[in-house]
Specification:
- The protein is α/β, with parallel strands linked by helices.
- Helix 1 links the parallel strand 1 and strand 2.
- The longest helix is centred in the N-terminal third of the chain and has 14 residues.
Amino acid sequence: MNAPNGLIGLVSATAAGRRARDLVAAAWPEATRVYDTGDQSGADTVRSALTRAFAECDRIVCFLATGATVRLLAPLLGDKESDPGVVCVDEARRYAVALLGGHAGGANELAHAVAEVLPGCRPVVTTATDAVDVPGLDTLGPPVEGAVAAVSRAVLDGEPVRLVRHVPFPLPALPENVTETDGGDGAGDGSGGYTVLVTDRAVEPDDRTAVLRPATLSVGVGASRGAPADEIVELVERSLTDAGLSLRCVAELATVDAKADEPGIVEAARRLGVPVRTYPAEALAAVPVPHPSQAPLAAVGTPSVAEAAALLARGEGAELVVPKRKSEVQGRAAMATCAVARRRPRGRLAIVGLGPGARDLLTPRARDELRRAGVVVGLDQYVAQIRDLLRPGTRVLESGLGAEEERARTAVAEARAGRAVALIGSGDAGVYAMASPALAEASADIDVVGVPGVTAALAAAALLGAPLGHDHVSISLSDLHTPWEVIERRVRAAAEADLVVTFYNPRSRGRDWQLPKALALLAEHRSPDTPVGVVRNASRPGERVAVTTLGELDPTVVDMMTVVTVGNTATRTVAGRMVTPRGYRWQGGA
């Protein structure tokens, strides 16, 4: 497993602890820093090492007892937003305990990662939401403020909780007691009850409201040379306040390339806690704006900096919510302008390949996307494979065979509504599966993530030996969507090019002549003793594997659950396994 982001400090006190520490350091050499206590295990030595790690690292793994770690850390603790996450590993390496900073500090994630590195180790996570498989409000992505603990407890206790979204935002599945409503602001609106509010408005949460702050806003800034940071910060804050918008939802300050190093802008961004994003003058000049001006055109080559930069930063479909405003300084001309644009938060479509069927061939990334989704769309038999991995409250939209285009349209529509969607398919979703129809339907108004999976061809090849050791091709023999003339032309080309061929959808009750015809085309260029692999239900119950030859293959043993792999002229059978040479020899150096 990859190391979590950030620097991880490793602190140990005993020989056994150092051995475990070294395993973690070896697994993540670029992400870890060892705080060596030498051969001494005295409290002072360990205390000094842990104190340095606490100040310098994003996360810490202590190969110490939890009690000792708590006592050593107690004087160092500040608050959970800034303290590093801490994981403890016991002397026998049986447990990786998320001790401090489970969510904010990343200790829960780190505990799972450490447990994967250390053989026989198990993660121990006691955060209430994780224990019952409910996403914590502070793990949803945006900053969260207000009555986070009270609302989280209400969610866990099954009390009614409203979800109010002023702006669409893709959320994972929430429990059934969390219901979405359009009524009221959700914060001090007199409705009572607990509320999760997703907004970029400047609302003050009451003691029963938690507010998620998605980064929907960009502030475009124009500034004269030498404009003070104080003037820019005051202008930005006043503009947001007057518009009823939250500073916490600002993603960046945007400006023209010529102002990338302007000290006032750089310092204002630092104070506001956001990055500076710049654009070429010609790109800004191409953005239609309501208030162009000759002054910036003469100075930096574009009739608009603030409005154009804000709109460009927010992307296609951005809305200018605060037109250009000038700073107000007593006794002299304004030196800064700003404008604010909002982008409708984008829905998220993850196109997930589930692999050939075996649970251990489902990738960790696919698992993560299934748990991140609020909506899962897929073929009913594929949904059945992974239903137990979904969070409680996940909305499942399933359908039967032959409804691929309908599933693709449904998934894209759900993402366009601002939801987090997982569209699932077997194998790799981009190979004879759902990615193609979904991406043909999707436009630039949603975020799309592709999650690769182990294909049927690869799963079958692993069982057969190494038939794909050189150039190879996959061809579907289904003529439901592709005319047979086209399929035949492709098979002939593969035969003439001496490519190893894997046939998908080789034979069904209604299509029983295509496979014999395809094999006959290959036989025009390959001998009857060419190895052929036949794999049915690769990695699933009822798996069957056979290696035969082109001359002896009986097509009647093949069905739609079977993958047929035909070797090239160099493929051989070695100890019952298909082997295609790589086509070159290793060259030794002097």
